[in-house]
Amino acid sequence: MLTKRIIPCLDIQNGRTVKGVNFINLRDAGDPVQLARSYVQQGADELVFLDIAASLETRGTLLDLVRRVAEVINIPFTVGGGVRTVDDVRDLLQAGADKVAINSSAISTPDLISDMAAEFGSQCVVVAIDIRQVEGEWLVHSHGGTRPTELRAEKWAGEVEQRGAGEILLTSMDHDGTKNGFALDITDRVSRNASIPVIASGGAGSMIHFVEVFQNDSADAALAASIFHFEEISIPDLKSHLHDYKIPVRL
Predict the structure, then answer these.
(1) The pTM is what?
(2) Which residues are part of the catalytic machinery?
(3) Distance CA 174, CA 131 (A)
(4) Other CB atoms within 10 A of residue 111 CB
């Protein structure tokens, strides 16, 4: 059985790490370079860097900051935010990213997923899917969660896999920052509708939440932000806890 991955997430705004609840009410969470270095020392399996304002501000990702973070880490590094073209992807890979995440551009230009996979390989293509329940349906949202679409989560997950995505980052906006646990049902359904790895995101508040999302084997990895940024849970303690539950992790 493959080990389950623990992934801290750096949501970036104005060069700083920020964190909010349900994608709003953002507060400062620290210097991204310092946090990145700390997470490597703690044993994080990967790191995600999301420039959350890039799509809304119609600009590219902060390449200089990506370079500075990449210089202090030696774990797989996923970067997203404002990626619209294959050239944008190339710039991020040259700046130190190992994988590139797209969301809004995948929705507006689905062929970009295929173009990225053809140019760089599926292993570096991550499609971020931000979802919220609307009248009982889990609908995909774009532009930092501000624009609802008519895309259903499960169907969209299947399509991005067919187009060449190598991984899905699934974030429940309803659970984001609440610390009430991951969206277990939809995470499981999306995972069963796609054969590529799914990263669960949104809602982590305690170690048992990670146990829950891993126990039914739906998520391949779990991503969290505030509980790590504000030192509510340490990665070594979390991995030890998961190991006690016989969940395979890299210790």
Answers:
(1) 0.92
(2) 11, 130
(3) 8
(4) 9
